[in-house]
Structures are given as C-alpha cells and as structure tokens.
Queue: 2 jobs
Job 1
Amino acid sequence: MNCPRDAAVLETKSIGQTSVQTCPLCGGMFLEHGQLNRLADPTPGDLEFSTVDGDSFQHEDEYGPIDCPRDADIQMRKVDFNIDTTIILDYCPGCHGFWLDRQELARINEEVKRLNEAGAAVPDPLLVRISQFFWNLPLPH
Ligand SMILES: [Zn+2]
Ligand SMILES: [Zn+2]
C-alpha cells in the first residue's frame, strides 16, 4: 500500500500487539477495521462506532480529501473522532478502515483519557440501537 498523501510505500510497524501500515514520510497510518479500537487506550464502548455513527461526514480539516490506500477508487470521508472533538479522521466507507494523520493517535488517546476521567460513556452500539428503537416507536395517542 502507498500513502494517500505522498505516495510513499507504507511500512509495517507494531504498536503493542497490533501491526499497522505507517508512512515513513508524513507519519500517517492506515488502520484496518477494528484496529482503532485495539490501538486506542481502553474505554467502555466502541470508539469506531461512535466515530462513524451519526456523523454528518461533512467537516473539513487542514488536510485535503484522500482516497483509501486499500481501495484506490473510494474517497475517504471526514469523520469527527467520537463526539464533539477537533480530531478529524478519514474513514473508508468501503473497507471501514481509517487514515490517521501524524499525531492523531496521540490526540485520540488524550481524548480517551479525558473521557475516562470524566466518566463519560462512549456510545455502545447495542445501547444506541436500543435507544433508536425506542426513539422510533410511535407516540401513544
Ligand atoms: Zn505519507
Ligand atoms: Zn478502504
């Protein structure tokens, strides 16, 4: 795979138990589906789900749009990490992978630490689905 920003060949790097594709030039990294949840510091809930679910996909960041390094013909979408943060990731609707630019993983872990300290719950897919189910029930007359 090549870096979607500068076309450098991505290198495999181990972060803890997880092997990720990283760019030696710009410090970005590609995360396969599920890898963000494994790489980020532990927190209750599902970070990938909360990042993608309910997002308008319309925010711009300082970096331009890119194509997924895995799916060359799919443009990644901009998504806010979790909720109400300034961390904007690139998400592939095809393979559900994420592109993290330099320092974004460190910023994610700062945010996770803040969430954990605040006792803030990261949305859990099952709980969100249950609440959406009740939300959609017709009001009693
Ligand atoms: Zn790069
Ligand atoms: Zn993809």
Job 2
Amino acid sequence: MVLGTYKEALSARATDSKIQKVAQDGGIASALLIHALEEGIIEGAVVAGDPNDDWAPYPQVATNADEVLQAAGTKYSMSPNVFGIKEAARQFGLEKIGTVVVPCQMQGIRKAQAYPFSIRFIGDKIKLLIGIFCMENFPMASLDTFSEAMMDSSLNDVKKMDIGKGKFRINTTDGTKDIPLKKTHGYEQSGCNICNDYVAEWSDVSTGSVGSPDGWSTVLTRTDNGVDLFTSAVDVGLIETKPIEEVKPGLPLLEKLAKGKKDKSKKEIERRTKMGIPTPVLY
Ligand code: SF4
C-alpha cells in the first residue's frame, strides 16, 4: 500500500475564516488541533512556531486556538517538535499532548512509544499525531539562498512559503515570486533523499495539499482516534468535506508521488550502500 494503511480518504477544508486566512491549503492541521483542545482530547499541542519571524521554526506549546493560529502555515525547515513533546510533558506538565510533524518525525515518535528508552512516561501522554505530507525539507541556508539569491527577496519580507505544481513559491510585500522545483534539488537535507514516506503513514491523521483543489487539503484518517476526531470536527461544522473521488487530481496523483518517493529513496539507498556509506535499511 503506497499510502500506508488508512480508513478513509477525503478532500477537506476548515470552514472558519480565521483558520483559512492564516493556514496552509485547507487548514486541516490547525482545525483538528483547535478542536482537540476545545474537546479536551489534548491539553496542549507542540507546533512549529516562528518566534523570531525569520522562518527558523522552533517548537512551541500551544494551549489555545490563538496560539495554534499564531504558528499556522507550513515552514520548510525542520522544527524539532519531537524534542518539544518532552518539554510539553516535563516543563508544562501536560498529560495529553498532540503535535503536527513530518513523516520522519512521526516514525521517530512511534518508535519511541514502542521502545520508550529515555522518554519513559511520555509516550503514553501523546494523544494526537497529525502528519504532514513531505517530499523534502531544507536547511535554513537553502531557504535563504532561494529567497535572497534566486528570488531577490529578504527572508524577513516573506509572508508565506508554498510548494506546489512544480514550484517553490514565496509571497512577499512585493507580490508572489517563484522558482521551478528543479532548481531547488540538491539543496534539501541529505537524509530526505533516502526517506521513503511521503504521507506520514504512522499518523492518526495525515494531510497535505496534493490531490485536492486549491484551498482544500487531502486527508487520510488512519487510526480510530484519528477517525473520531475528524468526524467530530466535521459534525460540529469546523471542517467541510468532499469525496476524494469527486475532486481533481485526486488520489492518483498522491499515489504517484508517494510511489515515486519510495522508488527514488530505494535507488539512493542502494547507491550509498554500494559506496560503503552507512545507510539505514528501510526496505
Ligand atoms: S522528506 Fe522525509 S526525511 Fe525529509 S523532512 Fe520530509 S519526512 Fe523528513
């Protein structure tokens, strides 16, 4: 199963204009975190904040809707949210924690829950894991290069970043600028080239833009907890949905990209192994 195990696939978006205004795509991650906080499913969420307003993300603990919305929107450099979970439990004393992470972080968290060396008593406090589709991630120096050298804009002037339709795009005070994704290849984190999970296969709910029209997100509910939370958010009108079969490009594109990532990483693992470079065996 190239998309991992899931219960339902849908196209969805948050109905709240406050979420739509600041969130990426359909705002599903923000809407689910806010709903989980309001329902007491979690007491706090580890989110990727941008405390210095310079696109260098840092994990922050959000305990209300405003704090979730302050951190909304995708950052394309890594936020160490896994570290933030420990802090949420130890420093904030939270018993029920949620977070939004990329697939490699999701794998780390699930492994830590299964083998809780050094995070004893914390794994059980994680009640909600939302995974974001992820093809690659960039060091801050790469984002700086894209913005300053390739698009002639200071990172400080960037209001939003986005990857889609083959382009890396920034919205700045001067308008929208973009570069083709082929120009960004080689600037990603080296580990991304051997990563085989595009759709956060181990999450409660996975979400991302691919497969759905602009302003909507594709959602894969994977666990009973994920289904219950998503259904509840739909029932109270916080999220609206469309059958994935009725939207374009739909699941075929998501499956194509997920398979492409697995194939590419397999090839790279074989290449590195042949060169004698220590490489994790993922297959
Ligand atoms: S591509 Fe994989 S390794 Fe890179 S950030 Fe995304 S999930 Fe992590």
